[in-house]
């Protein structure tokens, strides 16, 4: 297939690009900068210059492709509502372009149920609807097009998609631990994060592209839930600093913006995904990656 990927040069997207190229697909990657364009060209992918702020450009690229994988998102935590509105508009425009074609649109979503302590399964619908909800309600928007001649698939990624070179949530927690001289968790440290290695996530995306039926939700979760106390302990051991508890009321002052996410109980099953796609994660666990220096060795 000729696949248009937004976020093709990003952390997950670059691994997905590698996976698709290695298995015989063509990739057209969205590139906002010269640097991103050069990185895609070096991999052997074609380049479509543009950004999420130009939905007409996204629509033209989607129209010329056999499939769309939408992984880009404006991670602007100073205007998260605005980022959600941009997401909604971009997804809507691409869906309208694909309507009636039978072509797939896979889009990145998250493993957030809205219920503390609930193990999220693929059968659980997202609670977020509408342009002003989290990520612009794009998952429910996309899945609604299953009845309009599109093959939408929700790619629900774990809070941490880890590996050497990761600059995401776990990297931020490591930076904060280094700055404070202690690796912290919130309260009793019983909240949990699902996790998946980057290469396993990329393989799941490729399998979903090739096999997942319209309206599917697939879970990129190799580990269903790692206690935040264990994550902090692994970071502390790697840095050689103590592991401490931070009171919930002090979490924002200690962690900044990431405190809200670290305090979430984001646990998920991937049993149905594994059965549906024949997906078996083989990469290192999150704690193994931390111990191997993924967040402390020079990258």
UniProtKB/TrEMBL annotation:
Which part of the chain is the NAD-dependent epimerase/dehydratase domain? 3-213
At the top level of its lineage, which domain of life is listed?
A: Bacteria
Q: Which Pfam families match?
A: Epimerase
Xref: Gene3D superfamilies:
NAD(P)-binding Rossmann-like Domain
Molecular function terms from GO: aldehyde dehydrogenase (NAD+) activity
A Gene Ontology CC term for this entry? cytoplasm
Q: Which InterPro entries match?
A: Epimerase_deHydtase (IPR001509), NAD(P)-bd_dom_sf (IPR036291), NAD(P)-dependent_oxidoreduct (IPR051783)
**Name by which UniProt lists this protein:** Nucleoside-diphosphate-sugar epimerase
């Amino acid at each position: 297939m000729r696949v248009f990927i937004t976020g093709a040069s990003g952390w997950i997207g670059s691994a997905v690009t590698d996976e698709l190229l290695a298995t015989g697909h063509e990739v057209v990657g969205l590139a906002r900068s010269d640097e991103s364009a050069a990185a895609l060209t070096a991999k052997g992918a074609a380049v479509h210059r543009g950004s999420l702020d130009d939905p007409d450009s996204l629509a033209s690229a989607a129209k010329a492709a056999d499939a769309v994988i939408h992984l880009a998102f404006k991670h602007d935590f100073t205007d998260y509502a605005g980022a959600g509105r941009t997401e909604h508009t971009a997804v809507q425009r691409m869906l309208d372009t694909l309507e009636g074609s039978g072509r797939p649109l896979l889009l990145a979503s998250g493993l957030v149920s809205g219920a503390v302590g609930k193990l999220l399964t693929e059968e659980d619908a997202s609670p977020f609807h509408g342009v002003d909800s989290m990520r612009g309600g794009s998952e429910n928007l996309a899945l609604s097009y299953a009845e309009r001649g599109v093959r939408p698939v929700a790619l629900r990624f774990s809070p941490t998609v880890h590996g050497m070179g990761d600059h995401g949530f776990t990297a931020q927690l490591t930076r904060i631990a280094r700055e404070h001289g202690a690796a912290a968790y919130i309260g009793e440290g019983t909240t949990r994060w699902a996790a998946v290695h980057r290469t396993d996530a990329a393989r799941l995306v490729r399998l979903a592209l090739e096999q997942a039926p319209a309206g599917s939700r697939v879970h990129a979760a190799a580990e269903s839930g790692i206690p935040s106390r264990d994550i902090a302990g692994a970071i502390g051991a790697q840095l050689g600093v103590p592991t401490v508890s931070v009171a919930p009321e002090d979490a924002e002052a200690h962690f900044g913006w990431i405190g809200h996410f670290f305090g979430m109980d984001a646990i998920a099953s991937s049993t149905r995904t594994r059965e549906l796609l024949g997906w078996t994660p083989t990469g290192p666990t999150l704690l193994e990656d931390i111990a191997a220096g993924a967040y402390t060795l020079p990258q």
